[in-house]
Hints:
Elements: E1 5-9, H1 13-25, E2 29-34, H2 37-46, E3 51-55, H3 64-74, E4 79-83, H4 88-96, E5 101-104, H5 109-128, H6 136-140, H7 149-159, H8 164-171, H9 175-189, H10 194-206
Parallel strand pairs: 1-2, 1-3, 3-4, 4-5
Helix pairs in contact: 2-3, 7-9
Amino acid sequence: MTAIKVLIVEDEPLIARNIAMYLRNNDFEVSAIAHDPEEALFQLKRQPPDFVILDINLECERDGIQIAEHINHNLFIPFVFLTSYSDKETLERAKKTNPAGFIVKPFNEQTLYATIEIALSNHAAQANRHVPELTLDKLNKHLLAPLTDREFEVVRLLYAGKTNQQIAAELYIAMNTLKKHINNAYFKLDVGSRTTAVATLRALMVG
């Protein structure tokens, strides 16, 4: 799939469904909805997403902060916290996990999208700060089938943490055209998701 895959961890079904609707409206793929920590951990292992929206206050033995700690220890993916009310101690615990952002309930579609957009960009900047700049010549030396100039432009923006909507707007191309370029790039990189594509690109640039 070419869309950014998002795991939603939210114990209130109505809020979870609204988030899923907002995400799909903005060309994200909802990889799964987890209503409790156990389901969240299962989904993280079964199909690692590109991004996680994580409620802090899950009505369970574990809270969202503990899931965030698991993500930090086992997966290099960005996440944002959902919160409606939290005491100072809980918020301090949450900050220590270095989330990519916070979304305060109630929120609307525009707020959700803007928070994710900023979070993805910041995460990419942090992850790429010690990696050489992505260049077409160096990248193509490692590939059996070289990327075209347009495919490289798409890959460069994926690497920078841009969403599909941002890439399509920046390159002045239709979404269907963009998805074809992403699929072609994935095939040449021998990857099946955005997370693995970005990880592969970093490895090729360092190598």
